[in-house]
Amino acid sequence: DHIIVVSDHSKNVYETTTATVQDTQTGQVIEGLRCETPITAVNYPVRHFEATPLEGVSLDCDFNFLAIAQMGPRKNLDNTIKWFVEEFRDTEVGLVVKTNIAKDCHIDYEHTVARFRGMLQTLGERKCKVYLLHGMLSEEEMTGLYTHDKIKALVSISHGEGFGLPMFEAAYNGLPIVTSLWSGHTDF
C-alpha cells in the first residue's frame, strides 16, 4: 500500500524509473510502466553516544582515513585499498578498514586477514599503512572510531551505496567524508 525509503535519492529512483515490457504470448508492448504506489522518504535519526576508545587499536600514523564496508563487489573495498596504496605509497598516512566478509565470527576473521595479506602483498613496499578492524563494535566504540583524533576523514567509493549509514554516522559525528556525488548520501 505504501513504500517507505531512507533517502530522497531512493524515492526519486522509484518515482522516475520506467520500464518497457512485452507480453511473450501476444507480443503486446507496454511502455512507460512505473511504480504508482505512494512513496515517503524517512531519514535515519541522528543518535548520540558517548565515545569509547577502542582497546588494542594503535595507529602509527597521525593522519588516517577510515573505510567501513563489508567486503564485496558493490562496496568496492578492494579498489579503495589498492587506490589508497597507489596514491599514498610514499607517505606516512593510514587507512583504517572496518570490514568483514560475511559475519563477525573467527572463521570470517581468518578469511578476511588472508584476503588482506594477499592483496597487500601484491601492492609491494610502501610507507602508508593499512589497518584492519574486524568484528562487532558497540555504538560507543563506533563513535570513538569516528571521533578518534588520528582519523581525519571517512572514505567510501562504493558502487551505489544507497543511504550509507557509516557515512551518515561519520557526518553527524563531524568527520569529513570523501565519496562520490551520487546516491542516497547526497541527502545529507
Structural commentary:
The protein has 188 residues and is of the alpha/beta class. The chain contains five helices and nine strands. The strands form three sheets. Strands 7-6-5-8-9 form a five-stranded parallel beta sheet, sandwiched between helices. Helix 5 links the parallel strand 8 (151-156) and strand 9 (177-179). The two termini are 28 Å apart.
Bulk shape: globular
Mean pLDDT: 92
Strand content: 15-25%
Order of helices and strands: EHEEEEHEHEHEHE
Number of strands: 9
Query: Total helix count?
Result: 5
Radius of gyration: 20 Å
Structural class: alpha/beta
Largest sheet: 5 strands, parallel
SSE topology sketch:
Blueprint: E1 3-5, H1 8-16, E2 18-22, E3 29-34, E4 39-41, E5 64-68, H2 77-88, E6 94-98, H3 106-122, E7 129-133, H4 139-146, E8 151-156, H5 165-172, E9 177-179
Parallel strand pairs: 1-4, 5-6, 5-8, 6-7, 8-9
Antiparallel strand pairs: 2-3
Name the features:
188 residues; alpha/beta; five-stranded parallel sheet; two-stranded parallel ribbon; 5 helices; 9 strands; 29% helix
Summarize the structure.
The chain is of the alpha/beta class. The chain is built from five helices and nine strands; from the N terminus they run βαββββαβαβαβαβ.
